[in-house]
Amino acid sequence: MAVSLNNQNGLNPSLFSLNNNSKVRTTSDDSGVNFEAIGKTRDLDARAVAEKSKSQVLNQEDFLKLLTTQLAHQDPTEPMDNSQMVTQMSQLSMVEGLNSVNTGMADIIAAVSSSSALSASTLVGRSVLVESKKAFFDGKNAVTAKIDAGKGYGDIKIVVKDQGGNIVSEYTAPGGKGKMDFSWDGVKKPAEGNNKAELYPAGMYTVEAVGTDLATGKPTALPVSVYAVVGSVTLGKTHADTMLNLIGFGDVALKDIKEVAL
């Protein structure tokens, strides 16, 4: 009689098989394995095996239990073939070794991810580039940004708007391509007869850029990325879970940061 367990661990099905040549002398023993019941309760066994396969608990302990049970019930006149037992033991050792390697790799990946997340804490106080038209002006330091002119555009018009949508500053730059640096100092245009420079109040502003398409001559909105200061870091279990709190912006995922500046 042969008893085989289906498994999903890459083991040879014969690994968990009773030798076809061995004879069972009794239907049960102290280990609780009832060979007669196995043939009569196929549905129950199938569910039990499926549950074990699902949780991946067929391991060395299971194999040794089956092997010792087989040895205990084999016919002394027709014992298990030694070469077959050695082969099965070798296969088991190989699979156990692969499982150990997989576990080790998982530990290494987790450690690297944790280290990467922890290193993000060194970004506090640094300026990072994030794709956004929104920019935070602290009332004293200039707002810096990058305009993506891509393959190239004609004259590029850049406007800065306050939270009410009013234009506070506007510039026209000659045509260009690729990434273009932009800086807004936040200085108000002085009124006639007033030579004292004044700054716009601190708060959120919007930077918009429009370039002239060289092929069609039509105005085209260009992508804008602005620099923001990292106020704090919320560490996650992995690099992807780590969040940066940007002053004036709120939380932004570390993976969405395009550049880090001094």
Map the helices and strands.
Elements: H1 35-40, H2 42-55, H3 60-73, H4 82-119, E1 127-131, E2 134-137, E3 143-148, E4 153-161, E5 167-173, E6 179-184, E7 203-213, E8 219-221, E9 224-234, E10 243-246, E11 250-253, E12 259-261
Antiparallel strand pairs: 1-9, 1-12, 2-7, 3-6, 3-9, 4-5, 4-7, 7-8, 9-10, 10-11
State the gist of this model.
Residues 115-258 form the FlgD Tudor-like domain. It comes from Anaerobiospirillum thomasii. The protein is α+β, with helices and mostly antiparallel strands and 262 residues long.
Structure description:
The protein has a domain at 131-224: Immunoglobulin-like (Sandwich), CATH 2.60.40. With 262 residues, the protein is of the alpha+beta class. It is elongated and about 115 Å long. The longest helix is centred in the middle third of the chain and has 38 residues, at 82-119. Strand 10 (243-246) and strand 11 form a beta hairpin. Strands 1, 3, 6, 9, 10, 11 and 12 form a seven-stranded antiparallel sheet that branches. The protein contains four helices and twelve strands; from the N terminus they run ααααββββββββββββ.
